[in-house]
Amino acid sequence: MYIIYQNHRKRNEPAVVFSFIPVLGSAISFGSDPLHFLRSNTNRLGSTFCAVIAGNRTVFVNDPKDWQEILRLPKSAMNFDDIGKEVLVSSFYMDSGTADAVQFEGSKVLHGQFVKYLQGRDSIRSMTSLVRSSFSSQLSQLHLPPSSPVPLFATFSPLVFKATMTSLFGPDHPLVSDSAYTNFSTHDSIFPLLAGGAPSFLFPSSSSCSSNLRSQVLESTGLKGGLMEARRSYFTSNLGLNPRATAAAQAVIVWASSANTIPSAVWSLAMISNDPVSLARVRVELEGVEGEEGCGGADVDEMTYLDSCIHETLRLASSSLTVRKVNPLGYTLRGGTRLRGGDRVAIFPPLRHMDPLTFPNPKEWVGGRFVDDPALKSRVMPFGGGASKCPGRVFAVREVKVFVASILLQFEVTVVGGTLPDFDKTRVGLGINGIEKGKDVMCILRRRGKRE
Ligand code: HEM
């Protein structure tokens, strides 16, 4: 009965990708090669079709011309909040009542805080300045073997994590530590399984690492007037959450701020360093940066070539999925396609990122792509879109810029072998792909002489 319900097609509904596998449906085919799955089914069934993914009827809208309609629809037609709540419960060990408070009752105020602290000019300036001084002090203490290769991801992921935590909690907070990074990365490594609905008791180590993070997240921030303090005060004073629930809600930001920023930063450094032309162009921009530590503040805004390289990295490494849930009455799209109440609607931006008509030679990393054609930047969607678009996007790009600039100002970086490993494909749908399991980007790093 279940299979018949999921696969049966009513009038005006999108065609359904048939699957005999109950619950899982097409999850494995989609997860193992999403572009092939979406393109081949688009060829067979049309650009909007339905597939059952992990028990959910999911309508994939694959023509970018239809995306704006979906992203602009009001919450009364389809919403992200129900899905957001499921993720809070499945992946952040939050109880259902707390998830309701965070995702529904407090959503307007919390969104306003994101806008104020993650996008406001003064706040971004002071967060960038904290990130810059964190990189500066971490790099000065970094001991590297003089001429043997260094694994880029293993070496720099903890640095990016600690810089991000510094910007949110202040430099002396317990989350600014290697042990907190280990807790974060253990939880992060099984995040795709938790988000896919696997029960958390199967992963006791992740659960204890996540609990370690939650026990640290409430320690005093040392930062007055920042995002984390504003959230904490709202959770306790306005939503009446107890310390345990408040910690769970704060831990979400620890993950959201780091999980995608870390691979974005390290891939950007690797891809720039592996392309002599782009590396030379970025170095010319860096020459214009004043002072030894002058890669934060206003300067990063002027590095347009670096900005292009970072967006090109995000274009290639992105695999996010923007998802909405249709309201119980169902909804009819402009073109007449009928969606059932409870259907999920999904947009996969890499379909456009890898479209040769939009991005010629889409598989190639072209550092100056967006300098040559600035309008193309609006076609890159690594931060999702609509109501759930990443609120940390402006700060995130700045942090990546400061990271790359800090490293290149201090080091000559040479990628050993000249080729980069593949992406980790197990994170489809979550954001920026990490690096293939068991691999790293091996580089020779030589400290540069002091600039005059
Ligand atoms: C390059 C780094 C980053 C990338 C690629 C990225 C990407 C994303 C994506 C794809 C989403 C989901 C969008 C959607 O559903 O349409 C998201 C959501 C989110 N991101 Fe980011 N992100 C990054 C950095 C950050 C940072 C630094 C912060 C905070 C300091 C942050 C905070 C959040 C939050 C709170 C959400 C959930 C928004 C909601 O539920 O409405 N992100 N991010």
UniProtKB/TrEMBL annotation:
<dbReference type="GO" id="GO:0008395">
    <property type="term" value="F:steroid hydroxylase activity"/>
</dbReference>
<dbReference type="GO" id="GO:0042632">
    <property type="term" value="P:cholesterol homeostasis"/>
</dbReference>
<keyword id="KW-0408">Iron</keyword>
<comment type="pathway">
    <text>Lipid metabolism; bile acid biosynthesis.</text>
</comment>
<keyword id="KW-0349">Heme</keyword>
<dbReference type="InterPro" id="IPR002403">
    <property type="entry name" value="Cyt_P450_E_grp-IV"/>
</dbReference>
<keyword id="KW-0479">Metal-binding</keyword>
<dbReference type="InterPro" id="IPR050529">
    <property type="entry name" value="CYP450_sterol_14alpha_dmase"/>
</dbReference>
<dbReference type="GO" id="GO:0020037">
    <property type="term" value="F:heme binding"/>
</dbReference>
<dbReference type="GO" id="GO:0016705">
    <property type="term" value="F:oxidoreductase activity, acting on paired donors, with incorporation or reduction of molecular oxygen"/>
</dbReference>
<comment type="similarity">
    <text>Belongs to the cytochrome P450 family.</text>
</comment>
<feature type="binding site" description="axial binding residue">
    <location>
        <position position="390"/>
    </location>
    <ligand>
        <name>heme</name>
    </ligand>
</feature>
<protein>
    <recommendedName>
        <fullName>Cytochrome P450</fullName>
    </recommendedName>
</protein>
<dbReference type="InterPro" id="IPR001128">
    <property type="entry name" value="Cyt_P450"/>
</dbReference>
<dbReference type="InterPro" id="IPR024204">
    <property type="entry name" value="Cyt_P450_CYP7A1-type"/>
</dbReference>
<dbReference type="GO" id="GO:0005789">
    <property type="term" value="C:endoplasmic reticulum membrane"/>
</dbReference>
<dbReference type="InterPro" id="IPR036396">
    <property type="entry name" value="Cyt_P450_sf"/>
</dbReference>
<keyword id="KW-0560">Oxidoreductase</keyword>
<feature type="binding site">
    <location>
        <position position="344"/>
    </location>
    <ligand>
        <name>substrate</name>
    </ligand>
</feature>
<keyword id="KW-0256">Endoplasmic reticulum</keyword>
<keyword id="KW-0472">Membrane</keyword>
<dbReference type="Pfam" id="PF00067">
    <property type="entry name" value="p450"/>
</dbReference>
<feature type="binding site">
    <location>
        <position position="260"/>
    </location>
    <ligand>
        <name>substrate</name>
    </ligand>
</feature>
<dbReference type="GO" id="GO:0005506">
    <property type="term" value="F:iron ion binding"/>
</dbReference>
<keyword id="KW-0443">Lipid metabolism</keyword>
<dbReference type="GO" id="GO:0006629">
    <property type="term" value="P:lipid metabolic process"/>
</dbReference>
